[in-house]
Amino acid sequence: MPRFRSDLDRITPYKPGTSIEAVAAELGVGDLAKLASNECPFAPWPEVIEAMAVAGSGVNRYPDNDQRALRAATAEHLGVPEDHLWFGGGSSDLLRSIGLAMGGPGTSAVYASPSFVLYRIVTHIAGSEPLEVPLTKAWVHDPWRLVQAVREDTTLLYVCNPNNPTGTYLPADDVRMIIDRVPDRVLIVVDEAYLHYAGATDFSSAIPLALERDNVVVTHTFSKVYGLAGLRVGYAVGRPATLRALRKTQAPFPVTAIAQAAAAEALNYQDRVSARVAHNDRERARLIRAFEQLGIEFAASQTNFIFHRSPGQASEFIAHGVIVRPGVDGWVRTTVGLEGENDRFLDALQALHPNGRDFA
Ligand SMILES: Cc1ncc(COP(=O)(O)O)c(C=O)c1O
Predict the structure, then answer these.
(1) Is the domain defined by 46-266 classed in CATH 3.40.640.10?
(2) Check: CATH 3.40.50.300 for 6-43+270-358?
(3) Measuring from atom 12 of ligand 1, which residue has the nearest CA?
(4) What is the mean pLDDT of residues 211-230?
């Protein structure tokens, strides 16, 4: 056997939400509601599919390594200069590159727990030490404890806002407080994968801070509300010198031509984005009403998923044709789906819950 890096033994590989294909292969059940990966339940818009088809005819060439058309469209959409953007094959690709650029032996990275599992994986890949800070009892980032966790050797601090897997958010003032208190040598990554779904009046994007400060970057993705998870495209906003330094660890041509074309096209339909968010709001409220009726504890969500106590294991939901994501200590994470998918989830919940009969 080759001599692999032994420190990588600490890594538990990323486990994606169970796929419909995997359940179909194992149990022979094909008709499933997949509510396990916080994806957008709607198919891409026809104009986006058309843009992909057009781009597809040119894939004998490498894609634009500087993503010019997508960069211009994103810069205009956000109102930021083009050189303050950095694109990747999903925001996961950017998070990995950031971890590699900031890590290495003798460094540490601070993040909340539970939060997006990639932070831990990337910290280990980078040979850095993870410093995990528990969420509060309400499953919210604890801003003071995050600040206090920063050590002399800390180079990176992640804030997942809103947070995966809990759906909770940190008000803008708390994010600013963290950024103000942490030394400039620490890069702060504010991961806003779910920001479109966050309607709380005291939530706001940290982009203005990323434009202003060398040690702040904000990551966004086209995988959620834009519904392009299968294409893998995301971006970071930050100061040009910071982004140039981080980009050194990224492989060339990180975003395919098809993904670039689709993402640029998708930005043209902000009214439809709003309609998707409104759908999510309605359906999330319906699921929450059911949790309240059944007396099931849940975390206050500002996302397209809900973290809740579960009357059954994730595997028991599969028996009812619904895939949810296992969580911790009897909690699971359920993505808000289409109405019919949510109906199926509620039927499964009712069937698994001892008070299910009382639930109308
Ligand atoms: C908080 C958070 N950040 C980043 C990502 C990665 O998204 P992608 O790599 O698809 O852009 C996810 C995916 O679920 C996420 O939950």
Answers:
(1) yes
(2) no
(3) 193
(4) 98
